[in-house]
Design goal:
By secondary structure, this protein is of the alpha/beta class. It has 15 helices and twelve strands.
Length: about 350
């Protein structure tokens, strides 16, 4: 095969989990062009994957929702003359578009009507017990690709790392000064560690270790980051709402350690080789634990209801996250530093 397309998952963490797929394809087809079809929000992350030659944007729920836009995408894919497409998550609408684009080999998980338009159907048995990366790798393994490295990894250009350091220096970090990153946000509230715990940990890092604390996040996390910053004083740098994904990856890569709940930023940090302390509560590390280049310590307290991944979003007390103490994170940090 000379031209290969991969349909990416839509979420940041899952996009990172999918990067070993591109490595496996590159190992199997060293001279092939490998492209990713992805929603705009994960495009900048996939652009950091050294095994991807091109990222094709497809904003299915936004700019590309009108029928004319979908027809334009089909025409564009036809022009690229892909030999095969690997669809990492089931999607009838995308599978149909790829069939219209005339891609002769279409590999993916088949359900319902999609089974009729896929040329190779991937077995879904046992997926719920696999790490998410392994679930995505099954798509290419089912086609005969050998997987020699299941870790995920992204490469941040040196120019972006310099821009990130200059960005932090402009906000109060001294040139060459070490710092830690506390990622306080999450895509749903039950995965978040209590704000007061983050505040106590931030104070410990600044006063006991003499380290600046960088507080990233989305726009919705700005007020939380500011409250934690006020608890710390001059040792905190709030960058929530200000960082694009490649700059955030660079900030993670040069940090002494990154502390985060299970989230896309956690896996972004792990992918660039940062030391990470991963705080797990309702989700399970066997399914979505860090698998990047850097060392990781996972903290997961068994409170009974989280022996398997729990998605009970109306949980009244969130004990699985509250049970993780600040002292647990400090011990994890000391372990990583030893």
């Amino acid at each position: 095969m000379n031209r290969i397309l991969v349909v990416s998952p839509n979420w940041l963490g899952d996009a990172v989990f999918s990067t070993p797929v591109y490595r496996a394809l590159r190992d199997a087809y060293p001279s092939a062009l490998i492209a990713a079809l992805a929603v705009p929000r994960v495009g900048p992350v996939l652009a950091l994957c050294p095994f991807i030659d091109e990222v094709i944007s497809y904003d299915e729920e936004g700019a590309d929702r009108p029928l004319l836009k979908k027809r334009a995408l089909v025409s564009r894919l036809k022009e690229k003359k892909f030999d095969a497409v690997f669809i990492l998550r089931h999607s009838l609408s995308r599978t149909f578009l790829l069939w219209l684009a005339g891609i002769p080999v279409r590999v993916g998980f088949g359900r319902g009507l999609s089974r009729r338009i896929l040329t190779h159907i991937v077995d879904e048995g046992g997926l719920e017990t696999l790490h998410r990366s392994d679930a995505y790798l099954r798509v290419v393994e089912s086609f005969g690709c050998r997987v020699m490295d299941r870790r995920y990894g992204l490469d941040v250009p040196g120019t972006v790392r310099k821009q990130a350091r200059d960005f932090l220096v402009a906000r109060g970090l001294s040139s060459g000064e070490d710092y830690v990153v506390l990622n306080t946000g999450g895509n749903w509230d039950l995965k978040q560690w209590p704000e007061e715990h983050f505040s106590r940990l931030a104070v410990w890092f600044t006063r006991h270790e003499g380290l600046k604390v960088v507080l990233p996040g989305a726009k919705k996390d700005i007020e939380r980051a500011r409250r934690i910053s006020r608890a710390v004083g001059e040792g905190a740098i709030v960058v929530a709402g200000e960082t694009c994904l490649d700059r955030l990856a660079a900030i993670f890569q040069d940090a002494r350690v990154v502390v985060s709940a299970d989230s896309g930023p956690l896996h972004l940090a792990s992918s660039v080789g940062a030391k990470v302390i991963a705080l797990f509560g309702p989700t399970h590390p066997l399914i979505t634990g860090p698998r990047g280049r850097g060392p990781a310590v996972v903290i997961h307290k068994d409170v009974g209801c989280n022996k398997a991944a729990c998605y009970y979003l109306e949980c009244p007390d969130n004990q699985c996250m509250k049970r993780i103490e600040v002292e647990d994170v400090i011990l994890a940090y000391e372990k990583l530093e030893s």
